[in-house]
Specification:
This protein is of the alpha/beta class and about 280 residues long. It is about 20% helix and about 40% strand.
């Protein structure tokens, strides 16, 4: 079982990487620089890469291991699952990092950080990059794969026929760092930033309003994870979530089972059912 691993960065495709990087610098603070055609954004506990490509596509997700034993466990889980791996060069990880592609072709990178996080600036709102979610035409297959490589299922959402519609998986004590939804075709669904508390939802709502960025969904509360949320779009149409008070779970927590209905995704009201 993988433990001590957290999402560190997401790499997105964009028709205009520079413009998308500028949007995140303006909204999230921090800074961005170009390197070999890729724009690299860094801020306190949040990192993004933008390369030329189709909008709303996940090029890679980067997961940081808290120490050498955590990374060794990732490697061992991949070995037992007979997953082909490579050693990619990355912006943040030591040379012994691990890379692979899942059955849908999503690239996943794991490694130990080679440099420290930038210090938080007092004028920047807290927002730690926390999870990424993909849509899959075969969510069951993808959830089985991630469980086989060491992720732990926190909650499953199934319809009346028992077909999996969503699966939330964890790699540390937080409810999920990765999730998959059943969708008509494989795609990126959203990426999410964890806030300190409910007041952070208010503050980010005000920050979005000051920039005339409309909230597209929320505020609300998810069933799986029990977290508060709101969603908005970036200029490429990517779904972006800010979340607060995500459930922290113990090692022995059994997987939960939820019905496929709006109240599961939003106990407060309406929801966007991907399938």
């Amino acid at each position: 079982m993988i433990t001590g691993v957290r999402l560190h960065a997401v790499h997105l495709g964009s028709p205009d990487p520079r413009a998308l990087a500028s949007f995140y610098v303006d909204l999230f603070g921090g800074a961005a620089e170009e390197s070999d055609g890729t724009w690299i954004y860094s801020g306190p506990e949040r990192h993004l890469l933008f390369s030329k490509g189709e909008p709303r596509t996940l090029i890679a997700a980067h997961y940081a291991a808290e120490d050498a034993p955590a990374l060794a466990e990732v490697r061992e889980c991949l070995r037992r699952a007979a997953v082909q791996v490579d050693s990619p060069e990355t912006t943040w990880f030591e040379p012994d990092g691990i890379g692979f592609r899942d059955p849908d072709g999503n690239q996943m990178l794991f490694g130990a950080l080679s440099k420290s996080e930038p210090s938080a600036q007092q004028d920047l709102l807290p927002a730690r990059l926390q999870h990424v979610v993909v849509g899959s035409a075969d969510a069951e297959r993808l959830s089985i794969f991630y469980q086989a490589i060491g992720f732990t299922i926190s909650d499953r959402v199934a319809d009346d026929a028992g077909t999996l519609r969503a699966c939330f998986l964890r790699s540390d004590s937080e409810h999920h760092s990765f999730a998959v939804f059943q969708t008509p075709h494989n795609r990126l669904d959203h990426h999410c930033y964890e806030l300190r508390d409910w007041n952070g939802i208010r503050d980010w709502g005000d920050r979005l309003a000051a920039r005339r960025i409309p909230v597209k969904w929320g505020p609300g509360r998810h069933g799986p994870g029990n977290n508060l949320f709101l969603f908005f779009h970036d200029p490429d149409g990517n779904w972006v979530e800010v979340s607060a008070e995500l459930e922290v779970v113990g090692d022995n927590r059994a997987a939960g089972h939820w019905p496929h209905e709006e109240r599961t995704l939003n106990t407060w009201g309406t929801a966007f059912l991907r399938s």
